[in-house]
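Methods — Computational structure assignment.
A single polypeptide chain was analysed. Its primary sequence is given first, followed by the predicted tertiary structure written as structure tokens.
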Amino acid sequence: MNAKRSNGPRGPRRLVTYYDSAGLEISLNSLLTSMPNDVKAWTRGVQTLVDAHADAGVDTIAQNIFDRFTHSLHRDTTKVAYPSYEPRPEHDEHVASALRYHVMNKAMQEAGSDTIRIMLDRCHEVGLTFIAAMRMNDRHPISLKEKTWFEHPEWRLKLQQEGVYWDGGFDYSLEPVRERVLTFIGDLLEHYDVDGIEFDWMRWVYVFRPGTEQRNAPLLTDFHGRTRQLLDKAASKRGRKLHLGVRVPHIFARCMEAGFDVTAWIKEGLVDYVVPSHFGHMDYNTKVEDFRSLTEGTDCRVYPSTQGHMWTGPCRLKMYRPSHYFGIAHNFYAFGADGVETYNYQFSTVEQIASKVHELKPISDPAELAGHDREYLYWRHHGRLQAAGAQSMQYDVIRLTRSEPNSSGTFDFRLAEDLDSANVSALMEFVAVGMAVDDRISVKINGQKVPPDRVRRFHIWDGHDHEDKDEPYDLFRIALSDPPVKFGDNELAVSLTKTVGADGVIRIEDLSVSVHP
């Protein structure tokens, strides 16, 4: 069944930006070396970054302040988590930057301030919402070396993946783990006038022992309910609503696989928004409507996530372009998104932040977005939920095996475009690796064969693979001027019709569609 168009976004919020603990501060690194204890200069730098977001049409900044019992708040805020910026011998390769942050944070705190408070206050001054984001079970190597990890080995979650044991963060089936997080939330709300909290369950998904996720799901539902109570209690004192958001897997069925009963969270009124998210890529085939349908008749909103960087996968691009963000946002809105949340869209200087964030401004207005070039990228992620890191991701490609007559394969691709309109033109491209000059393929879209004279082929003799190693390939290009492509879900099928060899495999990958108004 083809996807149905959405009735349009709800509510006023359209563009949320999410940053990790040092996401915005990365662009201020020059201040750490040139003026390591200049509180006024640092304050001005942080305010400039917030101002740039307001100018770019951003509604909300979600700043991560918690990485599994480390935090980036004032050191006196809480006793159940430890400052992430304090220098420690176990920082290893991070020690130099940690020392610089320590010097700056010490200077700020002696002056009665801290980076998060500066950011929060500036957001309120310019009319932005500030959400305190929390990575609920972060497993970066540095997170596995913080104090709580050593103090409470009985809380550790050991996981096995592909026969290898790896550190799995903490086990949320244990009441002391949940209670410690709730205590931190209470301390946060007591000391900081935040507008809400976002739980990032995608860092890194697993919070229960394998096989116990669904049995333990009610424990997380209760945890969200108690968080809701803390937020409502603080809201009654402040005279305004405080929001609770959740970042969860972008495939709805996988939420419950991990013990995230999103249906209960929404229906019981525990969460105010949901962020369907891939772990590290942008999935243009995300079925936003699965989440939108749950929120109909509620006050909960849906803000699917983009990603900031292109990690290893079968794609030769190294960085997303604005047109890629416009394409996925266009799909998101078409199938039920109320807004879009960017994830770690960060750069290394203030100048880059100010210009790059502004490039995404069309996302804040779906009508304006429709007037911009849009690019759609497709590869299919398969396998279990993301656990050990980006390196464990696996992706399907179409493999045409020479020894199999009429070897074929398919790609699914979702496209929220009316290509029979005279107002747009569209181009499909894909890559074939390992083709000989006399090899031939047949292409079908939604079961309809594309005439061979419309399939252009170019041999890229000096090409590179997705890891930037030398790899020649053939580029195929199809003008979608008389398209069998329909609005919604489509299928590309590629078959090997002639081959000059008896052995080997031809890989079909890097499927994309570009649309030009």
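Note: The radius of gyration is 24 Å.
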